[in-house]
Design brief:
By secondary structure, this protein is of the alpha/beta class. About 40% of the residues lie in helices and about 20% in strands. The protein contains 13 helices and 12 strands. The strands form 3 sheets. The chain has a 7-stranded parallel β-sheet, covered by helices on one side. Strands 11-10-12 form a 3-stranded mixed β-sheet. Strand 5, helix 7 (about 170-180) and strand 6 (about 185-190) form a beta-alpha-beta unit. Helix 2 runs parallel beside helix 3. The termini are far apart.
Length: about 325
Amino acid sequence: MKHANIAIFVPHNGCPHACSFCNQRTITGQSVQPTAEDVLRTAQTAARQLGDKAHSAEIAFFGGSFTAIERHYMLSLLQAAAPFVQNGIFGGIRLSTRPDAIDEEILSILKAHGVTAIELGAQSMSDAVLTANHRGHTAEDVRQASRLIKSYGFSLGLQMMTGLYQSSNTIDRQTAQSLADLQPDTMRIYPTVVLKGTELADLYAQGLYHPPTLADTVTLCADLLLLFEEQHISVIRLGLHDSDSLRQEQLAGVFHPAFRELCESEILYRHTLEVLQQHNITGGTVIFAVHPSSVSRFVGQKRQNIQRLSQIGITAVVRQNHSLSKYQVSAELMYNS
């Protein structure tokens, strides 16, 4: 086990804003506020289950704006979690919050309680998009909070959304580059989903918001995934977690339970076309070699990539090669059709 999160959700707690897209209860699938006793029980159970592997795990407070919640309540949760880090049982504490809920006082408190990683919900680096979606912070808030977090020695995670109201692929690409320039350790990329009971749902019903298609979003997010990976920034999540509540509340927008796999399949298909062009192969039966872990992504969901190759006259035979990297593809023409 390389890493695990002991997830504790603090749903829609501490956030002073109602963002156009937000229905936090649906996203987390939970509405009950955890107590310090809940944290203690969850951590104890996880420690027993993980055994010797627990030291690589983190207690993770997700779902709300952790550093904006009522101070006494926040401290009670941290005080319940801290001994598990201080005693070496778990590797650290991770939390998510807003860029405008970070300052030196907050960071000192978090440091004293064993917090090791802070994720900021940036969502966009366009002030116009942030305003249109009622985020309540600016792009400069993201930059300042990110620098402050890194200066205190925390691992920095950033989150962005694609396809927001008033955004575009161009703006989303600019957002990704701006966030990459801040050199976070991790990124999460979430395509926008229209949920019942949100302002975005009203805009969608009125025809004022037109969500991007799945195909368009896969193309965009494949580009963003490559952008971050090429700069050695780990994308630890691509697409919302699947849940019954999300499926029940979704009205429109892009959600797929294997969204990351779709994006990685798109990257492999692009590389396949590049290899075919390099070898001047325009048709026939071709042996393609990929890393064993990439075989299913090369083939694609419902054999989509194999079908796409067939449509341009290529019959694909897939082989495994351990020496190749994740997205690397080699090709050898068996015979012309």
